[in-house]
Amino acid sequence: MSAATDGAETVPSIHVEHLTKDYHLGDNVVHALRGVTLEVCPGEFVAVMGASGSGKSTFMNLIGCLDRPTGGVYLLDGLDVANLTADDLALVRNRKVGFIFQGFNLLPRMTALGNVMLPMIYAGVPHKTMEERALAALAAVGLEERADHRPSEMSGGQQQRVAIARSLVNGPSIILADEPTGNLDSRTSIEVMAILQKLNAQGITIVLVTHEPDIATYCKRVVRFRDGRVIQDQANERRRLAAAALAELPAEEPEVSVG
Ligand SMILES: Nc1ncnc2c1ncn2[C@@H]1O[C@H](COP(=O)(O)OP(=O)(O)O)[C@@H](O)[C@H]1O
Ligand SMILES: [Mg+2]
Question: Residue 99 and residue 180: Cα distance in Å, rounded?
Fold first, then answer.
């Protein structure tokens, strides 16, 4: 049980036991995960660290239901996803999980609003509701006035905020972020962490991959992978608040588009 468990009744957001993943490449087998056992409870904010190739992205893809494990158990909000059909798995993923990636993964021809509306199209939400919810999500990341801009007309930080808004529109219980600050400068990275801390304070569970120790200091718990295994799992007793860190930075020109 993790430190965040406040009673026997708590259903973990993520519960994995002896999770394994093998990739077959011709005659070779890559053991990307070699038996990961881990629990993440509602409201946690976990940093996943570890060298390149240690299995971090593989782990994220499995807990995000983007891929299926080779072995082991995975319960997402108490639901055993192994028994789901591909369609049901996609439905669960769409409803429960929001994704943020290093490269933002926005569609270049669409506006910010269009990008944020996309996950709701798959969820079958009426158009008017889609637009209202997308605008609310853009407002939540401070970008309502950029709704009509395309990705090329926005800075990296703004694009990542659009991606965060997109991750929010279906009201996920979990956000999975794979190196979300990997393409951003340090101030913009802290701005992204401030938004994620705000969402976490509102109750969203967050699991975030990073190789930057500075970024991990904003998380509540740090899990370290090596060679497909968890080698360290510690509460971060000295968690920093990104909003406070930003206030201490010297004043800077407003962010400009890098188009
Ligand atoms: N789709 C894939 N096919 C084959 N091997 C893969 C695939 N994805 C990842 N791997 C391998 O699995 C291991 C773990 O990779 P990954 O989870 O991407 O690590 P990390 O995100 O920590 O850098 C690596 O050896 C990688 O080469
Ligand atoms: Mg990776």
Answer: 10
Ligand 1: which of 34, 49, 58 to mutate, judged by most atoms within 8 Å of the beta carbon? 58
Nearest CA to ligand 1 atom 6: 23
Cα–Cα distance list, 35 to 82, 120, 137, 199 (Å): 16, 35, 37, 30
User: pLDDT digits over 206-255, tens only?
Assistant: 999 999 999 999 999 999 999 999 999 999 999 999 999 999 998 876 65
Residues 201, 204, 207, CA angle at the centre, nearest 5°?
Answer: 105
Using the mean position of ligand 1's atoms as its centre, give its distance from the Cα of residue 23 in Å: 8
Cβ < 6 A, ligand 1 pocket? 23, 25, 30, 32, 50, 52-58
Domains of the chain, earliest start first: 42-68+86-246 (3.40.50.300)
**CA–CA gap between residue 210 and residue 52 (Å, rounded):** 10
Please name which ligand lies nearest the alpha carbon of 50: 1
Q: Which residues of the chain have pLDDT under 70?
A: 1-8, 253-259
